Amino acid sequence: MEQIYENTYAIREVGCAGEVNMYLVVGKKRAALIDCGYGGIDLPAMIRTVTKLPVTVICTHGHIDHAFGSWMFEDVYLHPLDMEVYKEHGNRQMQENSWARTDMRMLKFYKLSKEEFAAQRERALSHEPGAVKALEDGQCFDLGGRTLRVVHMPGHTAGSVLVEDVEHKVLFSGDDLNGQVWMCLKESVPLAEYKKQLLRIRQFAENEGVEIHYPGHGRKADDCVKRIDKLVKCTDKAMARKNHGKMADRGFTKGYVARCGFTSILYKI
Ligand SMILES: [Zn+2]
Ligand SMILES: [Zn+2]
Fold this sequence. Notes:
five-stranded mixed sheet, binds zinc ion, alpha/beta, Metallo-beta-lactamase, Chain A
């Protein structure tokens, strides 16, 4: 766990889809955990080293790497449009297949021992996904002196949300504004809709004065609007193409790549 700014921490977990970020936001009355990972690490114990306050979990979307630590908590929220994918990813077979796909390369890369990784995998596989409550667009969580606001942004999945730390003008963006956004999944929205949402969030970020965003994968980005502009360019490029080239294989999924500098989207047609 690493402090990223005042009373706010990043927690990273390695699992079948690589490294994922979770964020712990601590107020005076409550704490909120934005995403809860694969379910492989003891999050409540880790959180107790920082705060004893009650914890609410806000899942940015229903994927295996963001929502499966839900069984460790009582108060968990997810947008209703991602309930189906949450159930699908929680299917035992899907979970086992995903964890089985992890190879030695990943262990070396993340410096985990075989034993550490096996323990993490067993912990995740030994629980069913937890119960979740419905998250609404615009919903605010009052943590005591700090407010988190939920912004629904259909994109990577139909039920994806961003979470704004209102007082600090920081956005936690799940998988909607990553350096590479996967828009090739069956639960992703069409590119024209994604572009519409990007422009809406661009306006929102400008109105709110949001510059910094923390993505679900990868490191903090200092210029939210610039990242959005690049993603809009990628989306325009993909939609204008006649020839989509070769598909890139990411293990979990395949898609065509549209790039703008180091930012890209993976899409299908
Ligand atoms: Zn995802
Ligand atoms: Zn993810």
